[in-house]
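Journal club prep, notes for RB
We'll compare a predicted complex against what the paper describes. Inputs for the FE2/S2 (inorganic) cluster case:
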Amino acid sequence: MSKHTFILNGKPVSVDVDDNVRLLWVLRDVLGVRGPKYGCGINVCKACTSHFNGKAFNPCSVRVADIKATDEITTIEGLPDTVKADLHPMQEAWLENDVAQCGYCQPGQIMAAVAKVKEAKAKGREINDADLDEIRNVCRCGTYSRIREAIKAGAAKM
Ligand code: FES
Ligand code: FES
């Protein structure tokens, strides 16, 4: 066991776990943050998508020892705080478009969507269909067409 410190949803947290434990288990099992979902555990399904220093990443594929004290991890729980609102515009767009079916993949989908829109904005342009094609998050319920509509609507308000 060793101590690991990082910033989670805007606040410093410390955990005492083995270096090799993947961050997803630290978030879910040690810290009780359950927004990032466990689907595959091997960086394929993207159900656990969260943000690492503002960029999308999959905590099931990162060892806790590889996170530095200054690194900022944001999960769906912390997303509204990034815009100082009750809900992030992308979450509002999700509700307006009634995207979710079973809901399991949706936190990861929203986090992937926000990161993708920010990526496009950083390049000085709006999100396009090619960007949407790059989002690889799996939805077993097949909500993909509503996801695409919601991302475009959410992007317009970001
Ligand atoms: S659980 Fe992380 S990518 Fe599948
Ligand atoms: S809404 Fe059920 S897995 Fe996507």
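Talking point for the session: The longest helix spans residues 106-122.
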